[in-house]
Design goal:
By secondary structure, the protein is α/β, with parallel strands linked by helices. It has a single domain, classed as Rossmann fold (3-Layer(aba) Sandwich), CATH 3.40.50.2300. It has 5 helices and 5 strands; from the N terminus they run βαβαβαβαβα. The radius of gyration is 13 Å and the shape is globular.
Length: 128
């Protein structure tokens, strides 16, 4: 699955840098956005197969952005994995109802993330 386009949407520059580096080492084409507006502009010209979406973004949060992407892109929407460092009751359910395919808690497991991404891109990931 090397070379697949991935968009990371996260307002924390350190998280962005780590996630981007891990995925680039696996051969993915990675772009980043630090908020929903930036992500929407990026999606005008970049068509990722997978999006790593931070739950808490400034302005429009990750759940609302996921909902918007599912509505706007329909069947062409990418796999969306929600990343969050705050795991409050009901957050995962809310993210999945919005259209997220998976839910990953931060801090991310740097050893496991590439395998998780590959499994979702192949379409054989368990509903984590």
């Amino acid at each position: 699955m090397s070379g697949e386009p991935i968009l990371i949407i996260d307002d924390n520059p350190m998280n962005q840098k780590l996630e981007k580096r891990l995925l680039e080492l696996e051969g993915y084409q990675v772009l980043t956005a630090n908020n929903a507006e930036h992500a929407l502009r990026t999606l005008e010209y970049f068509h990722p197969k997978l999006v790593l979406m931070d739950y808490q973004l400034p302005g429009m949060d990750g759940v609302e952005l996921t909902r918007k992407l599912r509505e706007d892109l329909g069947g062409k929407s990418p796999v969306i994995l929600m990343l969050t460092s705050i795991d409050q009751k009901g957050d995962e359910e809310r993210a999945r109802r919005a259209g997220c395919d998976g839910y990953i808690l931060k801090p991310i497991d740097t050893q496991a993330l590439p395998g998780i991404i590959a499994a979702y891109l192949r379409g054989d990931a368990p509903n984590s």
